[in-house]
Specification:
Helix content is 31%, strand content 25%. With 102 residues, the protein is of the alpha+beta class. The chain has a five-stranded antiparallel sheet with strand order 1-5-3-4-2. The longest helix is centred in the first third of the chain and has 18 residues.
Amino acid sequence: MVTEESILNACLGVTQTFVSSSANYGNSFKLSGSIWNKYIFKTIVLEEEQSYIDCAVYCELDENLCQLFVISGNNCYLGNYSHTGSLSDLSDEATVFAKGIA
């Protein structure tokens, strides 16, 4: 019997495979928080067993057209280059994973 949970798990499995094998997120670099934090529109607290792949899945599935994500501590930050704002408590250098930058 097909359940809603089995469909969701199948979709998440496909998305994780896409994200981990996709060149879309192959571009990562270290930036100061004073640079990247102005693009952040959402913060997600990751569970201990979650990684950058989980953050990439959140970015891929987000309805706000996520274009980059940042991992800092146990937080996953989703961003879009057209977003203008700032999270004042984010000044630390972190690894930024960006889509579509060659």
